[in-house]
Amino acid sequence: MENTLLELTVPDDYHLERIDRVITQLLEIDMSRSYIQKLIKTGDIRVNGETVRANYKAKTDDSISVNIPEPEEIDVTPEDIPLEIIYEDDFIAVINKQPGLVVHPGPGNWDGTMVNGLLYRLKNLSGIGGALRPGIVHRLDRDTSGLMVVAKNDLAHSSLVEQFASRKVVKKYAAVVTGRPHEPHGIIDAPIGRHRVYRHKMTVTESGKEAVTEYDIVKMWNTGIRIFSLLDVRIHTGRTHQIRVHLSSESNPIVGDPIYSKKWEKHRVPYLLLASVYLSFRHPESGAMLEFKADLPEHMKEFLGRLSDCEVISNF
Fold it and tell me: Is 141 part of the annotated catalytic residue set?
């Protein structure tokens, strides 16, 4: 494995924030702040080509380079990490992932991931995903909770990958957004690609890849200051940050999203309000159609509870 070099440009939202916090929030890969501070000390993180201290305050348009050294040894060890396994047989397991849990090992998170927990709890996992991602067919962002299917052997892995690639897997999410969507039911068909300036972000762009997101408004509340909407979301493609990018592009960012919502901290939520609540696919061996549902995570229930006394908007 070779060194990895990442380049970031500091957006306006993070002007005068500590550099370790900026990098933690902006990087797509999940890295702990302690690991970032270590890279700052070793000079592997530079700002505008210069080394900085851990308390450096980033400035708008600063160019940050992050060099992730090759690990001396990678050993994914089983760990007793709480996991909610809602279904399991000889071929697959379905997990209801808690928010805040990184799916697989990577720079700054070589342990404490869902994969470490799976290795502790399951006897077998497919090897197609490689040493760092055994059994992993698809992923959820660290702060997104909900349903994931895991392959326990290579036959299951190949079948599931084919189903995802051919769009035969049905994935539905619940999302709480700020504002009022334009229509009660909408389809956002807009290509997504890497942001031209802020390389840690994805954006709607003509040069991007096809991305289609469908949503229905479930309920809306007026707090007197702003409107919040609960959406039922289905994705027909699987682009990085797809739901987050599409809803933000419609001026309805997900509450608590540190990358695509400028006012995310004002809502006082520990994780963004997005959860994978429905998953259906054909069983890799029997071909039977399987369906799984998950309740909203506690942090989403708590936020919706805050809205219980607010005016409900029904004319949509």
Answer: yes
Q: Looking at the whole model, is its pTM more than 0.85?
A: no
Place of tokens 């059994």: 135
C-alpha span between 252 and 254 (Å, rounded): 7
Q: Which residue has tokens 């992730």?
A: 68
Token pair 């987050």 is found at: 244
Please pick, among 30, 141, 143, 257, the residue that the annotation labels catalytic: 141
Give the Cα separation of 128 and 134 in Å (integer).
7
3-state DSSP helix/strand/coil % of the chain, to nearest 5: 20, 30, 50
Provide CB contacts within 8 A for 126, sequence distance 6+.
134, 135, 151, 152, 153, 154, 156, 157
Q: Is 18 exposed, middle or buried (0-12, 13-18, 19+ CB in 10 A)?
A: middle
Instruction: Count other C-beta atoms under 10 Å from residue 1's C-beta.
Output: 9
Q: How many residues does the chain have?
A: 316
Q: Is residue 235 helix, strand or coil?
A: strand
pLDDT tens string, the chain, 316 residues long: the values are 456 677 888 888 788 988 988 887 676 555 667 778 888 999 999 999 999 998 999 999 999 988 877 654 456 788 899 999 999 999 999 999 999 998 887 766 677 889 889 988 887 887 756 566 677 888 898 899 999 999 998 889 889 988 887 889 999 999 999 999 999 999 999 999 888 877 678 899 998 888 999 999 999 999 998 999 999 999 998 888 999 999 999 999 999 998 898 777 778 899 999 999 999 999 999 999 999 999 999 999 999 999 988 888 876 6
C-alpha distance from residue 297 to each of 10, 96, 117, 224 (Å): 32, 10, 19, 26
User: CB–CB of 75/60 below 8 Å?
Assistant: no
Residue 192, helix vs strand vs coil: strand
Q: Is 162 helix (H, G, I), strand (E, B) or coil?
A: helix
Mention every residue, 6+ apart, whose C-beta is less than 8 A from residue 306.
none
